[in-house]
Amino acid sequence: MSIYNIEYGDFNGTYDTETDEVDSKDIKTGLSKSQIKKGTEDVMYTSELFHDRTKCPISLDDFDDNEIVCKIRHCRHIFKRDYIMRWFENRTCCPVCRHNLKEDMNSPEIQIYSHIIISIVIVVEIIIVVMSFIRFYI
Ligand SMILES: [Zn+2]
Asked: Is the pTM of this model over 0.85?
């Protein structure tokens, strides 16, 4: 039992450090730079353009006129750049409406994969049908 415990403890220790390392750069916990780039855009804040949004929802600081702010393309919510970048380090959703930016990125890939899988299935079915015809006539 003691040997098992030691081994288990050793394994746990190594495993923990590995997951910690993975966590710090793993895209599962946040968004990668390219995902942020795709999902957001920098816009210049003016009180006329964003008259209903005067404060950053994360920091609660007032936006300044002509300040470059970060806008989430999908929901058009805007934030102070530093704060939203820090937010996306370990989160993937909009702080205001919880829209998941990662789903935006994944859906085209999933569509491509499903197209590939569907075409493979169709090709395999055609082969099976052709094979059965060949067997039937031979
Ligand atoms: Zn939003």
From this structure: no
